[in-house]
Write a structure and sequence with these properties.
The chain has about 350 residues and is α/β, with parallel strands linked by helices. It contains 14 helices and eleven strands. It has a seven-stranded mixed β-sheet. A two-stranded antiparallel sheet has the order 7-8.
Length: about 350
């Protein structure tokens, strides 16, 4: 697969990825290498990566506990201390090997340690391959609020090896699929139609589907690296989806949702809002809702869940001047950003979802 040119870096695929990595190590005089992993990728992915790295440099492994609940500033502080104790300097290289939690947090650690050291992302989940590792967003959660602390800073490269997907559960694969569905809905109607009958997808073509998803995200980010305008399109399904994810993360009586599971709900809700703002047709809404519900389990919302979710919307990063801003679809394959939505319509969307 041909590498994809992003803003000041490349996304490399499969065998080309490791050739690019080793070439980069030979051409740059790094002092040492630190590989950040979580407990899952340390066990299942690191043994594949280490034998492929061609270097005489000292390699140190830094591990933290897997899970969204550990994507916080406390974990960063621990890693900064470890880097300091192990002699990391401005010429060190950090390699982030893992899913979105690892690439987001590891990128933030690298971007802020000694005011910034080089880092490379090697995503190991479908979600991180098509979304989290590409585009330069780094950061951590603030309590239960998603991605409130962070910077935009691009890696030296992103290396996508789809063999890592063999380590994933079906639920993790579905979580990543949500972002691929989103890319079709906001940008490429033909790509969206690939997923209308999930049972007919040829998973031998998964590499091509991932490649197209990365292309779509990259084409949007290249137009607007710092999210001043069109990059906001990538937040379709995320305004409500992130609030739902945060609420389920903090609620002791709720089972935590994977990111993609929450975003799937968010896309249905925000498609309903798009319908009632006359941006999509009833037929398009039914198509979207039916397709997403054929893949994801229904999420139960009690009446007393909705208001706390709405209160979390005020923390969405797209908001400006205290106004909640949505990215809505304007027909399948097109987007309309900076859309204000009344609470009444949001409540109606939840009622429709529950019914």
């Amino acid at each position: 697969m041909q590498s994809i040119q992003a803003n000041n870096y490349f996304v490399h695929f499969n065998q080309n990825a490791y050739e690019a990595l080793n070439k980069h190590l030979k051409e740059n005089k790094y002092s040492n290498i630190f590989i950040i992993v979580d407990t899952q990728t340390n066990e299942y992915c690191l043994p594949k990566l280490l034998p492929i790295i061609e270097t005489d440099l000292n390699i140190e492994i830094i591990e933290f506990e897997a899970g969204e609940e550990n994507k916080n500033i406390d974990t960063c502080i621990q890693i900064w201390h470890v880097l300091t104790e192990l002699g990391a300097d401005r010429k060190s290289l950090i390699i982030n090997l893992g899913g979105g939690v690892v690439t987001d947090l590891g990128g933030f650690v690298a971007s802020t340690f000694k005011r910034g050291v080089d880092f490379i992302n090697i995503p190991t989940t479908l979600l991180s391959m098509v979304d989290a590792s590409v585009g330069g967003k780094t950061g951590v959660d603030l309590g239960n609020l998603k991605n409130q602390i962070g910077v935009i800073n691009v890696p030296q490269m992103v290396l996508i090896d789809t063999q890592y997907l063999e380590t994933l559960s079906q639920s993790e694969m579905r979580s990543g699929l949500a972002e691929m569905l989103k890319h079709g809905l906001i940008y490429d109607a033909a790509y969206w139609r690939e997923f209308l009958d999930i049972s007919s997808i040829d998973y031998n073509c998964l590499d091509e589907l991932i490649y197209r998803s990365v292309e779509i995200k990259n084409e949007i980010v290249m137009q607007d690296p710092t999210e001043k305008s069109i990059r906001k399109a990538l937040n379709f399904g995320h305004t409500l989806g992130h609030a739902i994810e945060s609420y389920f993360l903090e609620s002791e009586d709720k089972q935590t949702l994977l990111h993609g599971e929450a975003i799937a709900v968010g896309m249905i809700l925000e498609s309903y809002i798009s319908l009632h703002k006359n941006l999509i047709s009833k037929e398009e809404y039914i198509e979207i809702k039916t397709a997403i519900q054929s893949i994801y389990d229904h999420v139960n919302f009690e009446e007393n869940d909705i208001n706390p979710i709405l209160e979390l919307l005020i923390h969405d990063k797209k908001n400006e001047y205290g106004l909640i801003q949505f990215a809505l679809i304007e027909g399948i394959g097109k987007i309309k950003i900076n859309q204000s939505v009344e609470n009444k319509l949001i409540l109606e969307a939840f009622q429709d979802y529950k019914s």
